[in-house]
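Re: weekly structure request thread

Next one in the queue (288 aa):
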Amino acid sequence: MPIAAFSVNDGAIRIGKIFGDQIVDLGEASPGFPTSIKAFLAGGEEALERFRAVAVTDATALPLASVHLHAPVPNPEKFLGIGLNYADHGKEGERLGLELPKHQKWFNKQVSCITGPYDPVEKPTVSDQVDYEVELAVVIGKTCRNVPRDEARSVIGGYMVANDVSARDWQFRSPTVTLGKSFDTHGPTGPWLTLDEEIDDPHKLTLRTYVNGELRQNGNTGNLIFDIYDQIAHLSQVMTLKPGDILATGTPAGVGVALDPPQFLRPGDVVRLEIDGLGHIENTVVAA
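Done, posted below.
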């Protein structure tokens, strides 16, 4: 069962366990339970055992439709993304004058861009090229460094759907892409954290993007150029990865900048991103 951050009428953010179309407040069901998903991950096996033990009958179950879901990890130490990591998207990049990477090409998304799974995404007044990118987000579950590839899965806490919203005009005019990837609200994630133990193979997941109901992206994580385990092994040679760190693992073909003609997001557009087994997020574009 996934774990989610949610609020009800009083606005306080709580942590809950998802049971189908219901959610149970973990603080009520298991007094003393960690008060954030990041703290839950840092709590290791003890916190995981407490989570597994909670049943739908342990507390008042709320209808999922009656709560507001928040970004599962709103304050990671790091939010990193990898560029051109699907072969079909790499070909799109080549048509735009970008070179296929010979090595993993990482960038920062500033953590202030993170927003909730159903919250608005802003079109900044200073950008006319706001684009979507559906991505599998891997959330680190353990503090780790120099992780061998064959041990990489052991440090994964879980998975989310992410939209690596990109202001292409800002992205392409700078030697680094951080500014074009980091506008406020340009990091929707969620709808919850699906724990690693619930996913048979993270490299067999289908990703899709719809804009106003039109299918724009349709890919599979089996087509990653550098797979998730390679990514963790590579990054952890450079830096200590910590519980809650988010790795956006790449996007398949179909981004707006590569369409003919390009189709960028405008206020009023509704962007739905889904990954089989992980749920979906859906954000309406608004004027900043």
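The two ends are 36 Å apart (CA to CA). The mean pLDDT is 95.
Next request, please.
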